[in-house]
Write a structure and sequence with these properties.
Layout lengths: L9 E7 L5 H14 L4 E6 L9 E3 L5 E3 L1 E3 L3 H6 L6 E4 L8 H11 L3 E7 L11 H7 L2 E4 L2 E2 L6 E2 L1 E4 L15 E4 L11 H7 L7
Parallel strand pairs: 1-7, 1-8, 2-5, 2-6, 6-7
Antiparallel strand pairs: 3-4, 9-10, 11-12
Helix pairs in contact: 3-4
The structure holds adenosine-5'-diphosphate (ADP) and zinc ion.
Adenosine-5'-diphosphate (ADP) binds next to α1 and β9.
């Protein structure tokens, strides 16, 4: 409970693959909170510097001012305690300590909006999103469009070769894929097209 406003806090999670509209949805909810004259603060991890240093930016170029933090604890340091609504983008990059911090914030009456990838480039649950989903009051799963077949896409396909969990990048390095078209790791299909021996008589 917020000692100033008497409001009960909660956690809302928006999760899905890249290009599924997580940032757009987060920005939409935060704009509505501002219209409702709530005090809003937005955070994102330092690692995500794809487009802009002090803004969250969607692939459709919607923008909102945000504070860049080096880790989840810094959210508490940078927070104005009068803030009522806290938006956190790219939450999957914060690691396990975000779980306690989001819970603490909700327990003290803050509305905590968390957006992040639910699975990694191999299709595995991306910590700390699974824990946050369990603790949240509200969960929204966003889907993208599969770039191979046009079906709803739940996966983030990495197109460049790397075994690192985090390779920051956008178009060209990743694309959305459905369950059927997703190939964990880097797709080898194109390479195999060239490697395939010529069919006799073809
Ligand atoms: P996320 O935060 O989930 O990566 P964004 O909110 O940044 O997603 O971007 C969503 C926007 O990306 C969509 O509104 C659309 O304009 C664009 N987009 C590009 N590729 C795709 C795709 N494969 N499926 C759906 N939207 C896409
Ligand atoms: Zn597909």
């Amino acid at each position: 409970m917020d000692i100033v406003t008497g409001h009960v806090g909660w956690i809302e999670v928006i999760c899905g693959p890249m290009f599924s509209g997580k940032s757009e949805e987060l920005i939409r909810r935060l704009r509505r909170a501002k219209i409702a004259r709530k005090r809003v603060q937005v955070f994102k991890p330092v690692l995500d510097d794809r487009y802009s240093v002090d803004e969250i930016v969607s692939h459709g170029d919607q923008r909102m001012k945000s504070t860049v933090v080096a880790n989840a604890k810094e959210i508490l340091d940078q927070m104005d305690w009068r803030t009522q609504v806290i938006g956190i983008d790219e939450s999957n990059f914060f690691g396990p300590e975000l779980v306690d911090i989001a819970s603490q914030l909700a327990d003290t009456g803050k509305q905590v909006l968390i957006a992040g990838l639910d699975t990694d480039y191999l299709g595995r649950p991306f910590s700390p999103m699974p824990e946050l989903l369990c603790l949240a009051e509200s969960i929204t799963k966003t889907l993208a469009i599969c770039m191979r077949c046009g079906n709803p896409a739940k996966h983030t396909q990495r197109l460049v070769e790397s075994n690192d969990l985090i390779v920051v990048g956008a178009s060209g390095m990743y694309e959305a894929r459905c369950r059927r078209c997703f190939e964990p790791g880097v797709p080898k299909q194109e390479v195999m097209e060239f490697a395939r021996p010529a069919t006799p008589g073809a």
